[in-house]
Amino acid sequence: MHMPFPSRRQGGQVLLMMALSAVMLIAAVGLAIDSGLGYLIKAKLNAAVDSASLAAARGVTLGDNQAAQAANARQAAREFFDVNYPDKYLMSTPVLNPVGVTFDKGTVTVDVSATASLPVTLMGILGFKTLDVAATAQTIRKDLDMVLVMDTSGSLSGNATAVRAAGVSFMNKFNSTVDRVGLLHFATGVQVDLPIKPVNRGFDRTVATTAINLFAFTGGTNSSEGMWQARNQLNSIDQVNRSSLRVIVFFSDGSPAAFSSYFFPATSGTCRTPGSIATLTDKPGSASPLRGLYRMDLTNTDLTPTTSCDVDLLTTLPAWYNPHNPAANANDASLREFPIVTNTPRVVTNSLATPLLEWTNVHRASRNLAEAIAAKARQEGIYVFTLGMGDSLTAAEGPDNEKGEDLLRCLANTIDAKASCRKPAEPQGLYCYAATESDLSPCFTRLASAILRISK
Questions:
Q1: What is the mean pLDDT of residues 302-315?
Q2: Which DSSP letter does residue 22 get?
């Protein structure tokens, strides 16, 4: 009697189990390899979609109507996606889906999605052909109210062409139908070139460009009046119509040495016109450093030259900044917002008894007022961004040997501003320093990018 050979049957079973195990092992290795590749592709795709979404939000600022803006947004999304996710990356095939651009009053929503297909490696043994990865991103560009303040004082005359070009380029980075934008320039006085719209959205890009290209660079530096007018423009918009983001962008090349007020009685006497008083930069000798009284609504024009408005007749400074409200001369404390005569942050007396007192008090008041008005704007939720150009900003000037760039940092409330003016609870802006003309446009671009990031 012959018995069967179990070893032969078992050997066949072992071979079958080994074959199945090999298949599972190959599939497991394939899963590990393809999953790793898929993870890398997913990370790359996410980054590409995010960058495309942000680029589209910036691209939507270009164009004078919604159709052109949407087209520019989609083109920007395509360009950034292609740069950040090259075709055949790790053998994958990317597909950017149609970019959604939705306008709703002052808000633009950009939706970007994409997929990438990767041929599988060893997982094909289980019947899989491709590994598909998807990514989405949404950027909401909120509405913006912004005023651009441009210094056109005489010290910038040698940089006129570069300043004009940078200003135009900066304005072109914003949406002329969605963003509310105002424009003004200042020297000894201030001119509002493009008033911000109090109700409707958008701004006239052509008017802004024409105004910037006509800027003449002459006169002193009345920073506080430029800041006051910018804040006033933003606050002229009723609360119900204000945008969620309000910004002042302030450009200057030097320290302030002028400010505005009623220097003679507003309701009596023969000179009842507010004006701007300016002083020289350098410390005076025996002669008066006061350059005169100037119109507030023009950048460098004397008040009507009558003896009643002659700066030489002044003996004291007014106690309060009051050029826009003559009633502030009265005893109504509610009308007194910004002091001229004060002990903080710099001591200012009302005396003009000597050339040194004239120079000291006007310089200090000019700086105090600029800081105080900017602080008030920030307390009202307004971001202040500043841009400075030139060597003079890094030199110690004035009666307290202060640097102009320190003032610009204070206005913006940057993280590196002086402790005496830094207010952590208030909106924190950005200061950019352009050492030369070639740094000017990059600085403006940096500020624009920062503003657009806040608005998302």
A1: 82
A2: H
